[in-house]
């Protein structure tokens, strides 16, 4: 394989040694450790929010947030382009997912579609910043305030991306992040919640700590699950957070190499526009095929895979999320909304034209050079 989107996150010796030193001084090793509190404080300061709550996964972050914002039967607006885990969190919270379309060539919600989807049961809008790309703007914030809709940002892939509104995951009411192996902040498994709301923070922290009531210092006052992050993971997270900006700079260089060796040498593929983005975290490079091309990004991804280039487009068989069998089989209209691709013309067009190239730290300039040769060769043959 010349380039693979699946990789083992780099772990340098100093990072491991620093984590062990932190653990050696820890009071506890459980999720109630001072190390976890230290990690949360670093997250809070880095992202400039009032509260940070470390949890066991990005899905746990979403589920815990939804459990404290919606009631059973409430509708949750969710993008047609997202990962199944986002929708699973809604279903586990006994909400009803209502899919919406995105703006053309973007992951930002389409206001006209949101307006059509809005009902008296709509309580939450989830935005999903896929591959680190922006998924929220001031128009969306204004729309939600006007309609009393809570914004939960699924920022699992976008730690470090920011615009004039701030970091992705800090613009809405609640931000949910993942620190899985493939994320820029990696604790193996894990996640965290960011919010500026005292009320949401108290409820979400209680829920993720098995319903522990801080004021009573006891359990049994509220429902909850054990979604705590261990001190082992938190110690790694502290070191990872210290290196986040450097990782992003290195990924920016990788994107520039892709641009120089591939995108500047063909008219078929161009980088996806990022209007008003001050910094993209380089999670991956989303590219769009020229609108006049007769083949899809998925088809191109399958062809270059045969040449040793594995992309998210090929690995995950990218599609709009309502096409997944789970949601198609069990939720039918009128209870379930947006099962027809015609309802999401922009999302369908985006998925058709998109191909995503990896930018992680194990990719070398030499590998991109070889990959570019193979990709250009495939394009010339099509």
UniProtKB/TrEMBL annotation:
One of its GO terms (biological process) is polysaccharide biosynthetic process. GO terms for molecular function: exoribonuclease II activity; pyridoxal phosphate binding; transaminase activity. Keywords: Aminotransferase, Hydrolase, Pyridoxal phosphate, Transferase. Belongs to the DegT/DnrJ/EryC1 family. It is an enzyme of class 3 (hydrolase). The keyword Hydrolase applies. The active site is at 183 (proton acceptor). Its EC number is 3.1.13.1. This is Aminotransferase. The keyword Hydrolase applies. The modification N6-(pyridoxal phosphate)lysine is found at residue 183. InterPro entries: DegT/StrS_aminotransferase (IPR000653), PyrdxlP-dep_Trfase (IPR015424), PyrdxlP-dep_Trfase_major (IPR015421), PyrdxlP-dep_Trfase_small (IPR015422).
């Amino acid at each position: 394989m010349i380039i693979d989107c699946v990789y083992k996150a780099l772990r340098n010796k100093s990072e491991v040694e620093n984590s062990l030193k932190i653990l050696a001084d820890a009071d506890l090793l459980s999720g109630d450790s001072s190390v976890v509190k230290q990690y949360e404080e670093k997250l809070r300061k880095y992202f400039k929010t009032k509260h940070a709550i470390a949890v066991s996964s990005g899905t746990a972050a979403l589920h815990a947030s939804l459990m404290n914002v919606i009631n059973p039967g409430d509708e949750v607006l969710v993008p047609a382009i997202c990962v199944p885990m986002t929708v699973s969190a809604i279903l586990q919270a006994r909400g009803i997912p209502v899919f919406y379309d995105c703006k053309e060539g973007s992951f930002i919600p389409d206001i006209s579609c949101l307006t059509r989807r809005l009902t008296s049961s709509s309580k939450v809008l989830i935005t999903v910043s896929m591959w680190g790309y922006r998924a929220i703007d001031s128009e969306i914030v204004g729309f939600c305030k006007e309609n009393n809709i809570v914004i939960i940002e699924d920022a699992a892939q976008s730690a470090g991306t920011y615009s004039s509104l701030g970091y992705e995951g800090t613009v809405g009411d609640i931000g949910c992040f993942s620190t899985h192996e493939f994320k820029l902040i990696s604790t193996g498994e894990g996640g965290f919640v960011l919010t500026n709301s005292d009320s949401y923070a108290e409820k979400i922290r209680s829920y993720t700590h098995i319903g522990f009531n801080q004021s009573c210092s006891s359990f049994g006052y509220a429902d909850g699950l054990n979604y705590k992050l261990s001190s082992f993971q938190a110690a790694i997270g502290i070191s990872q957070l210290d290196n986040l900006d450097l990782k992003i700079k290195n990924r920016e260089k990788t994107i520039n190499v892709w641009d120089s060796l591939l995108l500047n040498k063909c008219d078929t593929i161009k980088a996806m526009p990022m209007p008003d983005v001050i910094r993209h975290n380089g999670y991956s490079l989303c590219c769009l095929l020229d609108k006049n091309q007769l083949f899809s990004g998925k088809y191109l991804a399958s062809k270059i895979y045969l040449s040793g280039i594995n992309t998210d487009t090929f690995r995950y068989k990218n599609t709009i999320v309502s096409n997944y069998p789970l949601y198609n089989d069990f939720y039918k209209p009128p209870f379930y909304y947006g099962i027809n691709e015609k309802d999401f013309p922009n999302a369908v067009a985006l998925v058709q034209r998109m191909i995503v190239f990896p930018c992680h730290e194990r990719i070398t300039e030499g590998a991109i050079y070889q990959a570019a040769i193979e990709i250009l060769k495939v394009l010339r043959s099509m």
